[in-house]
Design a protein that fits this description.
Mean pLDDT: 82
Radius of gyration: 20 Å
Helix content: 10-25%
Order of helices and strands: HEHEEEEEEEE
Low-confidence stretches: 2-9, 15-24
Strand order of the largest sheet: 1-6-3-2-9
Number of strands: 9
Strand content: 35-45%
Largest sheet: 5 strands, mixed
Shape: globular
Structural class: alpha+beta
Number of domains: 1
Distance between the termini: 46 Å
């Protein structure tokens, strides 16, 4: 009788832990408005890549990554690009990052959304990360991390 009670207690505890994990297993994306509030290592990574257009990835820890989208640099005489859409989707063990950009009609202006930072809270560890920009698969421009 004692063994059955212990077994039931273990099952209840384990099923309770499992349901808590299911509630928190969701990708969460936040756009970062103020760079000054970021961890200094993340700020340094962004500053290092400010002169390079592309999709930059920073592994902060096992649960959080940062995506720095940069389209600031423009060749003389060309219109700047603006970032029009950003989305993240987890499919099995692949994290898909979707970025849409377009050439702006405004000309060069600081008000164009062409340098954005996103914090992504992962729902689990992914084996690979795929980037799709304007419907075409592309690679990450740079990858770094804190090693935590």
């Amino acid at each position: 009788m004692k063994r059955i009670l212990v077994l039931v207690l273990i099952i209840v505890v384990l099923s309770g832990c499992h349901s808590k994990e299911l509630m928190s297993n969701e990708l969460h994306v936040d756009q970062i408005e103020e760079r000054g509030k970021l961890d200094p290592a993340v700020q340094e990574f962004i500053q290092f890549n400010e002169d390079t257009n592309g999709t930059h990835l920073y592994f902060y820890n096992k649960e959080i990554i940062y995506i720095f989208l940069n389209e600031v640099n423009v060749l003389n005489g060309e219109k700047p690009y603006e970032i029009t859409n950003f989305n993240v989707e987890g499919v099995k063990d692949i994290l898909n990052i979707f970025v849409e950009t377009k050439q702006s009609n405004k000309g060069y202006s600081e008000s164009i959304p062409n340098s954005l930072i996103y914090e992504i809270t992962l729902d689990h560890a992914y084996d690979s990360i795929d980037v799709v920009k304007n419907g075409k698969e592309t690679s990450l421009t740079s990858v770094s991390g804190s090693g935590n």
